[in-house]
Amino acid sequence: MFPGFACWDRKGFLAALALIISISVSRGAPVDFNREVRPILSEHCYACHGPDEGKRKAGLRLDREEEGFKELKSGERALVSGDLEKSALVKRITTSDQDDIMPPVKHGKPLSREQINTLTRWVKEGAKWQKHWAFVAPVRPELPKVSDDTWPKNGIDYFVEEKLQKAGVKPNSEAEKTALIRRASFDLTGLPPTIEEVDAFLADGSDSAYEKVVDRLLSSPHYGERMAQNWLDLARYADTSGYHFDGVRFMWLWRDWVINSLTTTSLSTNSLSNNSRAIYCRIPHVTNASRPDSFATT
What we know:
3 domains; 14 helices; 48% helix; disordered N terminus; disordered C terminus
């Protein structure tokens, strides 16, 4: 979709770029590819410039870094690091020509002004790529500076306050203890707290009272049941076949193994891998129930 673009309106293009840059110049943090750019490309560009070779236009792929910067059949390049005028992508998303604008009008997915600003800033900053976040080892970031450093109680709170400041709002006051234990109980176990648990939390005046509640919930067997729901849903788990008569069925063995794994151990890389394989592998005979690892390797 990036044929020759020699007839584009140079004055209009430069004027549009000047407006976009002037709007964006006050934003200090560089554009984050995974958080801001990749979602735009995925939603608006991959249909014609993605992995599907049969639907790909103009030989351009934007799902791979090396493909985005290569010379196209037209002689242009979709992306030229730091050069807005030579980047065909920027020209096409900022043009006013309805025949040349990208994404095409007929697709019904126009870019918003904010999205155009983001892509333009990204190219201006060098069009730096990142691996998909799932393949990037997490790195502990520095805590952002906030106006009220007395509000945060932990590292995450600093990032929450930073977002609130950018949105021009202030954090709510801390919820009542009855609300806190109710939220934690439902989130971690799917069940409401008992009256005795609420009373114990209210009576605990220590700074670690909430932490104790969370630790107790994480050690509950109901925590494993709650977390296992995602695994079971992905595997389309069911105790019954639904439409036919139910003979002898052993899938409950895998269900119990998943719950037990989540209850007694943290999901390490190995257990995640084993769990994923278990979804697609045959459930062994009931006599293997004493060998939970066999559920993942049989």
